[in-house]
Amino acid sequence: MIAVSQEHLQYLKRIARRRHAVSITRLLVLVVFFALWELGAALGWFDAFILSSPSRVLAAIGRLYTDGSLWIHVFTTLYETVMGFLLGTGLGVALAVLLWWLPFVNEVMDPYLVILNALPKIALGPVLIVWLGAGMSSIIVMAVLVSLVVTTVTVLGGFTAAEEEKRLLMRTLGASKAQTFIKVVLPAGVPHMMSALKISVGMSWVGVIVGEYLVSRAGLGYLIVYGGQVFKLDLVMAAVVILSVLAALMYGAVALLERKISP
Known about the structure:
Blueprint: H1 6-43, H2 48-51, H3 54-66, H4 70-101, H5 103-118, H6 125-132, H7 136-160, H8 164-172, H9 177-214, H10 220-229, H11 233-261
Helix pairs in contact: 3-11, 4-5, 4-7, 4-9, 4-10, 6-7, 7-9, 8-9, 9-10, 9-11, 10-11
């Protein structure tokens, strides 16, 4: 059994205290934000009709739950986002592997990836609707397009960041390209892959909401558009709050996966 010094134990305790302090501070910031929001609406610091308030948001969510439409909208958007995230991330990683494997193709495609990354994907919305129809498939493809290029560029950057000395050593020892990728390049790219997953979470939500803005009969994006059209701004804020909670949970799941994989 390895003996642990008192200094090391104190160091670990300081780290634990810091983590607890960060968690408590985060919670306090959230509580203060909602308290000031509610107080500002009650005291007339701002127009509650425009910015709503936590109590009005909860009332709007309660009405959605009562009429049975809450879970329909939540699960519609969540399903579209998860599908877009999985497809966009999977295709992005596969494309990054292909480009690393074929350096000539990587050099040819590099400027096109930059252009595709800068292209506003919402511009393709009407085209997707014509191609795929006004349905869920168009929304999922929009989410895939938004996250695909970002994932590819981020993961490919991680692959190319692997130390040249290690790759040269593998070649000197007679390793194949597949062995070099599995033993050196892939482990070096894991942190970048985790970063790509975190970015892809947010991009997938953006793609889905944009898609639901353009064509949707259900979902949180539909609620935002509908609430804005009929001036039910409590409904808009309720949808935004639900979106924030779902996005935070999905990001937390990716962060948990990172903690499991990183060691």
